[in-house]
Amino acid sequence: MTAVSATAAPSRATPLAAAARRNAWTLGLFGFLVVLLAFTKIINPDYGVAGLQGLAIAVLPLALATVGQAIVVIAGGIDLSVASMMALVAVITASQMQGQSPEFGLVVVAGVLLFGLLLGAINGSLIVVTRVPDIVVTLAMSFVWGGFALLVLNTPGGKAVSWLRELVLGPVGVDVLPKALVVLVVLVGVIWIPLRRSRLGLSIYAIGSNRLAAFRSGVAVGRTKVAAYALTGLFAALGGLSVVASTGIGDPKPGPYTLPAVAAVVLGGVSLAGGRGGIVGPIIAVVILQMIRTDMTFLNLDTNLAVVFQGLILIGVVMIGSFVQLRRGRG
From its phi and psi, is residue 276 left (phi > 0), alpha (psi between -120 and 50) or beta? Predict the structure, then answer.
């Protein structure tokens, strides 16, 4: 009996250990987040339920933008127009909801989500058709989408319907569980989990890992890339909706989401070369970056230093990744 138990124990532990090794970076980030939360509580003992509620609301738009950015980076690309797409969706949403019934608000939400898919698909199609590098096309399109946002509203305005605001403000059940966190988990889970296990998801990883090998394996590289950018547009639309939900209005000025999203993607363990990574790590990275800014406020430090830290973190992670790749190549 003892021998059987001793034999069975390693077999149960082996998959768990393998999973821990595969997700070591994400687990490390989560541990660092726990330490950061404890540090925040030490420097500000009053930080509690209200602080967590504010943190979840502040994190939601950037987290959604980061998930969209992660998908396209896994596919071997990058999208610098995420913030402009968010702004365009936000002003359309706020302007169309103003003075309308809650039921019409549902129509607006459905419409702007489809619109987000279209915006991303346009970005992807231009990249595939013109064969111009992703960074150039999406940088140019950021000005296009930003210009359209100013045509819709040249100043912040519009108004969100009440149910959209109630969707992210406040707690769910117990005070310690913010609605914004629940919305984030549900949206990401509903879209990412089926995508990750689908043929499209596998194709996205394949073209990011080795585009030529994916093509030779029968993957429709062009269509897959367009689909990846369309999904990025969808998450940008969700991010724009979350901005309207938290502020109640639409702002045509793109928020600070594009570069922080790239930083969170890299910090979260997604390879800029494509083909490797997930979305849990980048979401944790978003929370870490926001907590650093919050702690700087509590310590009476210039919050602009947070941008400096983001750049240093980005450089550090890229250097570590390059070193690991170099060692693997030598091995």
Answer: beta
204 within some domain: yes
Inside any domain, residue 4: no
pLDDT band at 330 (very low <50, low <70, confident <90, very high): low
CATH, residue 148: 1.10.3470
Cβ-contact 204, 224 below 8 angstroms? yes
Query: Domain total for the chain?
Result: 1
Closest CA to 282 of 75, 117, 65: 65
User: Which ranges of the chain does DSSP label H, i.e. alpha helix?
Assistant: 2-22, 24-43, 49-74, 82-97, 102-130, 134-152, 162-166, 179-197, 199-209, 211-216, 221-247, 258-267, 280-298, 305-330
Q: Is residue 96 part of a domain?
A: yes
- Predicted confidence (pLDDT) per residue in 218-257, tens digit: 999 999 999 999 999 999 999 999 999 999 999 999 988 9
- For 16, the enclosing helix (H) or strand (E) is helix 2-22
Spatial neighbors of 127 by CB under 8 A, at least 6 apart, are 77, 133, 134, 137, 138, 225, 229
Look up the domain containing 163 and give its range. Answer: 28-40+47-330
The predicted model scores a pTM of 0.90
Q: Are 125 and 134 in contact (CB under 8 A)?
A: no
Q: In whole angstroms, how large is the CA radius of gyration of the chain? A: 21
pLDDT tens figures, 259-287: 889 989 988 989 888 888 899 999 999 99
Question: Hey, which bits of the chain come out as E strands?
Answer: 171-172, 174-178
